[in-house]
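Two proteins follow. First one:
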Amino acid sequence: MAALNLSCYYHLFHSLSHSPPPRNVASVSILHGRNNISLSPMPLTFHRQKLHNNLLVLATTMSTSVRDDLPPALDSTSEPPPVFDGTTRLYVSYTCPYAQRVWITRNCKGLQEKIKLVPIDLHNRPDWYKEKVYPPNKVPALEHKNEVKGESLDLIKYINTNFEGPSLYPDDPLKKEFGDELLSYTDTFNKSVTTSFKGDGVDEAAAGFDYIENALSKFDDGPFFLGQLSLVDIAYAPFIERFQPYLLDVKNYDIKVGRPKLAAWIEEMNKNEDFNQTRRDPKELVESYKKRFLVRSPKQG
């Protein structure tokens, strides 16, 4: 879906509201890239403020993202890209939640055309990735200005600060302080939930999700951790995407029960096209975690 400029809607409103209406109906067709959005028919006596509100809602609810044509993952048989040729590249794995954080950030900033996605097959990694691109041999990694940087939390902050697009972190000092606290808690949260995967109960996972529920209650100006969508939501989303179906399937534990804020957050995240473009099939995620956390006994082979 092509990126939309909000100003086009204001120009449209201005031209409509300062021109005489047609005799019978007003029909508006907005052509932008692949989009053909029609608002018709409208009655002769439409109200200017109502039209303004409708156009504003339309503009703010349309996805501002560009859908990627996802390339195949590069493996040991693949040739390397022309590294350090001035192209900004984001090296990811389609299955890695840490890489997914940075991928979502790229999308939310509208940088699909500025940052090229380069997927790596982690099960059959090309030798050149370690030798020529990123010696730690992990994803994510960002090639930018003849340097390669890593670590997902550092990268989402770097992209937010050093590239164009909407800011994904608030200026409000209170929100910023709480956001920093929540970003620091991500590893603790992930560990507490995955620890429950290995045992019989869900107490540690429940405690982690209770913390999330309380954190989502901090601000009331939106359904997200800091009110509006931010790097904090992006940092947690790939992991909750995996934890929710796994706990429901294996432990029969629904993380949304008794946590209305978390349920609302999940619903809102699932509406976000920039996030949805990075998501995997829940069944695939559950099977992946089963292979990782469910240890077979010798009798089971």
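Second one, unrelated to the first:
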Amino acid sequence: MSTESSPLTHSISLPNKQSEPVQIVAASGVSHSDFWSAIDSSLFKQWLHSLQSETGVLADGTMALRQVLIQGVDMFGKRIGFLKFKADIFDKETGKKIPGIVFARGPAVAVLILLESEGETYAVLTEQARVPVGRIILELPAGMLDDDKGDFVGTAVREVEEEIGIKLNLEDMVDLTAFLDSSTGCKVFPSGGGCDEEISIFLYRGHVDKEIITQLQGKETGLREHGELIKVRLVPYKKLWRTTADCKVLVAVALLEMATKEGLLPPLAT
């Protein structure tokens, strides 16, 4: 007699034109609690919502979602931080399946901080070890949203305080991604072929004494208890675009330059 247990499954119905229910299945090794946490998570619910949105994959009824295989769950304390699953979505006309491996981590924010001092403008970056790419990377201060409330500006300010050690005023933040056409969702998708991450990029501009520039350069910050071993690096803005391969930096520069060219930026606060 076989001792293998039946896989965990759950059926859901989507409120769009798709008539067949969608089967949610747990891969081998996914626990009962992780499986149901994944289904109930904001990451999974948001992905389903995006599929059915006005510009979503399932919006025009030519494609159908038949099954989702939950493959992995990484918890950040009591909440899901990362979710890995495989979605079987088929083109109804050809019957062909489209690529559907998903690494879900949800929305995030990044901040381009520009500090002017004695006629030179500096960008404030963080230097961190990034294990997935096996490199030390210079990048914008950034972080994931911790909840479902969508407090992008507040999260951006908190991330800067944690990673850089300076406090920014909420009212001085400019959402650069808000200048994008509304059809884009006013977010940036850095790796849409495999990850659901969408990033809002903010700008902060300020004037400081040269002493502040010196104090920030090389400063060690971050939440050490969370493994954030961060050093602050300041780079002249005119050299920023060729200093790092971080896509958040390059997108921020492009958005800032075009917004400036078209006169979209609000005046700098005194």
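SUMMARY FIELD: Residues 247-261 form the longest helix (15 residues). The radius of gyration is 22 Å.
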